[in-house]
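task queued by scheduler; priority normal; single chain, no ligands, no partner chains; default sampling; output format set to structure tokens
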Amino acid sequence: MVNEIGLANSIFNQFLREMRDEKIQTDRMRFRRNMERTGELMAYEISKALDYKTEEVITPLGTAHMRVLEQQPILATILRAGLPFHQGFLNYFDEADSAFVSAFRMHEKDHGGFKVEVEYLSCPNLEGKQLILVDPMLATGTSMVHVYKALVAKGAPLHTHIACLVATQDGIDHVRMNLPKNTTIWIGAIDDALTAQAYIVPGLGDSGDLSYGRK
């Protein structure tokens, strides 16, 4: 299942618009904060798809029955671009454990392509858990698939939610072909095309550089 959040009228699109605007992008602090805010809004939408149970809570005047999460999800992200986006999810799933993956593209000079190398992984046990894997951009989908395969070495999730701000249809199709059926994709917006260097057009640029400076 693919959910494109930006299709509905909401404040989410205002934040995403500011992140795309090359003039507003020069305010690095605002860019990171908008990444965080879109993460919060997407976390809220994903929370509706999770499992809940009823618990009693004692108030000063009596007892209330409240629907609460059955289990906290595991929040995973790819360093470094995903960090402020991940923080937005963590603001809402504030009792969740987190996983971090260092992955990078190895560009091949002769062929103009690239392969993805996973260099570092810090992850709790994922067996039977709800995994939310967040990364701002889903271009070709290659990095996302490699990172997912590295993560599931730590256990098979009950369900995986892929959360990205901007994606291409090619990237979405690649993820759907290579991840299991118990996967839901959440996208802010689906853009038209990729450059030869695998950047999304119109996209928003390099979210890691815009958040933290050029590598």
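post-processing summary
- The longest strand covers residues 97-107.
- The helical segments are 12-20, 28-47, 83-92, 142-151, 169-178, 207-212.
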